[in-house]
Amino acid sequence: MYVKRREKGKPIRKKKNRKKQNNMYKDDHARCNSVPSPASCQAYLTFTCIDHHLNAVVDSYILWPPARIPAFMTNLRQFYIATYKDIFFINPPAWFHLYVRMEAVYHLPISAWAVYGLLTDAPLVPLHLLIYAVQTGVTTATCIAEALSWQGLSGSEKNALMGLYLPYLAVSIFMGIDMFMRLSSIIHASMRDREAKKLN
């Protein structure tokens, strides 16, 4: 608050100091970074890089024309099946084909873009990673539920599969919550900025 000097014949007027308040809003908005912290950024970079290569080399195998499948992809797939006995890659259900196509349409390209986005602090990182996390979480949770119902695998074999699927689920849940909170902060900061402008 500040007091305006009395002029002849005019009463003293008090006005609110909006400048300080506006600066506070700007500072809040500046703190609402669209990119993750260095630690989580490194974790997301590692996760998206691994996920991108696995989707491109392993999951997308069934989308390739048989005559054009590279030999190394076939060898890797055979090794994976022999090691983990993952029925999704032996006799996949119809919905698994749908998930693979969803990955090819959005998941595969966005995981490549996410590496660029995280390295360059792209403002759309929280939005895309939220969608990415939701898709990863839903598809992984479905696969886990299905795998746990398989009758042909022993307990140790299922545990080995869970060692692959559960980390995916955990990272996707953490990423989804993190990106949701960041988007919420950005939206709330923008709303405060609008309110501050209305008060000017």
From TrEMBL:
Give the span(s) annotated as Disordered. 1-25
Domain EXPERA, by residue range, is 40-176
- Compositional bias, Basic residues, is annotated for 1-21
Q: Name one Pfam family in it.
A: EBP
Q: Which GO terms describe its cellular component?
A: endoplasmic reticulum; membrane
Query: Mind telling me which InterPro entries this protein's record contains?
Result: EXPERA, Sigma-2_receptor-like
- Top-level division of the source organism's lineage: Eukaryota
Cell compartment(s), UniProt = Membrane
Q: Does the keyword Transport apply?
A: no
Q: Which UniProt keywords apply?
A: Membrane, Transmembrane, Transmembrane helix
Positions of transmembrane segments: 162-181
Concerning PROSITE patterns, the annotation shows: EXPERA
Has keyword Transmembrane? Answer: yes
Membrane topology category: Multi-pass membrane protein
- This chain's protein is named EXPERA domain-containing protein
Per the UniProt record, the source organism is Verruconis gallopava
